[in-house]
Amino acid sequence: AKEAGRNGYRCYDVSMRERAVRVLKIQRGLQTAVEDGSLSLHFQPKHHGDTGALVGAEALLRWCHPELGAVSPLEFISVAERSGQIGRLGEWVIREACRQLRDWHDRGLSTVRIAINLSPLQIQQPGLVEVAAGIVGAAGLQTSQIMFEVTESMAMRDAERTTAILRDFRAHGFDFAIDDFGTGYSSLAYLQKFQVRQLKIDQFFVQALDEGGHEPRAIIAAIIDLAHTLGMEVVAEGVEKPAQAEVLRALGCDQVQGYLLARPMPAAEFERCCLSGEVA
Ligand code: C2E
Ligand code: CA
Ligand code: CA
Ligand code: CA
């Protein structure tokens, strides 16, 4: 409070410095994360909009830094993108998701299609589709058992290029979802060209349903209509309240995901709560 001006600047310097130190720690930690067992995947169920039945799961990356503790994927993934570490990290996610799916299969548990998030830089890496198909094949799985999620803003940034990349993935049998839909600026022509399987309505719209106004509901209804017209399924994420789920069901939303139904959870918990055993 004293010497507000000067201290203001000094505070700014200090926090900039702290920020830089944190980024360096994250960057250094990531160098060994793939080998040292500090990474893991959590799984969040995707449920049928009407019946609530399990129809899939989204893999969400978790990282416990030895000193910083749990770091949000939003933070460490953007660091990994800037430091050129995203390739290795993203490959680990695909490999681990396939290993887990294989393990469930081998133990006679019911399995579901797993959705994996791809970061903007990652999907532009040449050869990613071959790497992914190779990992899936080596695990003895089909590419149809894995799908990928890319954000609307990433997909539309260079829509021509995205169209080509998605075509390549589709040729290998992989499906896609457009994530965080409604927050970017979609070209309807490209949305049709992408030929993705799912649109995921951004949580923002789902949570806005709470305010009770007519608008969020009308926007969601319009997205669902659009998606169905284009032959896509709609997933609503961030469903936290029964009233939200109620509106989504009334509007014919195909799948729902959110804390109301289940939080992202470690594999062992996901098995217990969501997968049934074919073998006793
Ligand atoms: P996202 O793909 O949009 O994932 C949804 C986020 O919402 C997840 O946060 C999830 O835990 C959270 N969530 C799920 N249900 C609810 C709910 O009912 N309410 C609220 N408030 N939140 C809910 P998380 O796990 O922290 O992941 C954040 C973001 O990090 C993801 O957003 C995704 O963009 C990125 N991410 C996570 N794992 C990976 C990964 O393996 N690779 C890449 N490239 N990005 C990842
Ligand atoms: Ca996602
Ligand atoms: Ca999302
Ligand atoms: Ca998001």
From TrEMBL:
Keyword Transmembrane belongs to the record: yes
Would you indicate the residue range of the signal peptide? none
One GO cellular-component annotation of the UniProt record comes to:
membrane
In terms of the parent sequence, the fragment covers 411 to 690 of 692
Looking at the record, the residues that make up the EAL domain are: 23-278
- Keywords, alphabetical: Membrane, Transmembrane, Transmembrane helix
Question: What are the recorded GO MF terms, alphabetically?
Answer: catalytic activity
**What protein does this entry describe?**
Diguanylate cyclase (GGDEF) domain-containing protein
**Organism of this sequence:** Frateuria terrea
